[in-house]
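Notebook, student rotation project (T.W.).
Task set for the rotation: take a protein with a known small-molecule partner, predict the structure of the complex, and write up what can be learned from the model alone. Partner molecule chosen: NAP. Sequence and SMILES entered below by T.W., checked by me.
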Amino acid sequence: MSITDRAVPTENLRDAMNRGSNDAGCTVTRAATLPVPVAGRTPPDHVKNPMSEYTPAEDRYRRMPYRRTGCSGLDLPAFSFGLWQKFGPEHPYETRREIVLRAFDLGITHFDNADRYGPPARAAQRFFGDLLARDLRPYRDELILSTKAGNAIGPSPHRKGGSRKSLLASLDQSLGDLGTDYVDIFYSHRADPDTPLEETVGALVTAVQQGKALYAGISNYPPDRTHDAATLLRQAGVPLLVHQPRYSIFDRSVEQNGLLKLAAEDGFGLVVYSPLAQGLLTDKYLVDIPVNARATTSAFRSPEVIDDTYRRRAAALNKIAEARGQSLAQLALQWVLRLPVVTSALIGASTVAQLDHNVRALDFPSLTKVELALINEHGLHGTGLRL
Ligand SMILES: NC(=O)c1ccc[n+]([C@@H]2O[C@H](COP(=O)([O-])OP(=O)(O)OC[C@H]3O[C@@H](n4cnc5c(N)ncnc54)[C@H](OP(=O)(O)O)[C@@H]3O)[C@@H](O)[C@H]2O)c1
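Predicted structure of the complex:
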């Protein structure tokens, strides 16, 4: 098969998503009613901070398509932005600020955080809280803020795992970090086999009932645990909004383990993280490992995975992208968004240029069947997955 065999598509991804392929294929009828929050929220302050020079781009909502999250009523942007890495104090404040504000200008309304992000832990949330107070407070109603809890923070036995204590104490801390009295989505960051699922789910339900979170989410849960959590949440009247798994051309776990299918059956959305495999699905490692790239700066991305096998596969994928007139990063992002069940691709960026470049993936025609088959030849599951 050749890349020149492809039919010539006429419509770009943005228009295709706007035209109506944004329905997640929800098959669940939701009978549950959401509980009335017992703790009222103070309304956000709509008064602009006189010290802020920031005014969001007026056309931001025309730049970004939005997709329905599972069977909920919530639409999320095709791209969400996460503050996992390089959002701590060792990176210039102005760079971090420019990236987040640019994301909002591009129509990215969903910002993903966790108690652990920075580094160090909590730093990314404190930064975002500062930005909220400084620039974004008037737009709080237009933002979808998420946080997560359950991964270990420090040595305390109470600041890890899926216990009620761990999750709810972390959420209170996160609200303090962010300087907001609610988050939109509160996630259990990972399944905890040592804690009863009822307890973990109960903590998510409490967070929603207290008005500290609008929706409940889970992340990194295997399908069986996901289905059980979705069932318990539905019974409690707090339907599972979203699952956050890892998904990219190089990580096909959710295709293989059935999570994609389960999302449609159980009616939750998928916000997929690391769609660029932390940078492996860009052209940055094709020849060398650049200074300051994540492979040299992060404990979560070892340079050892950038071997000959990786380079051969990435170079072949890069060729497919070039034949489409786009970059490998743009191809990889279009690839995860090809599935309606993927509500949003959760990306990171360490510069505004990366962010701009990546969001331009929306300008290209959807991938053809021939191109998808070619991608499958080179985009083998497991490439670069060693830490
Ligand atoms: N739930 C979970 O357990 C979990 C786990 C991981 C992530 N997440 C979420 O997902 C978000 C995104 O994850 P991720 O940052 O791994 O996503 P990603 O989009 O796969 O990787 C982003 C990184 O790739 C590099 N990059 C991006 N665009 C580039 C371009 N055009 N050219 C060259 N390099 C480029 C940058 O790293 P450098 O420039 O630094 O090399 C950037 O920070 C996180 O912030 C977090 O919110 C969740």
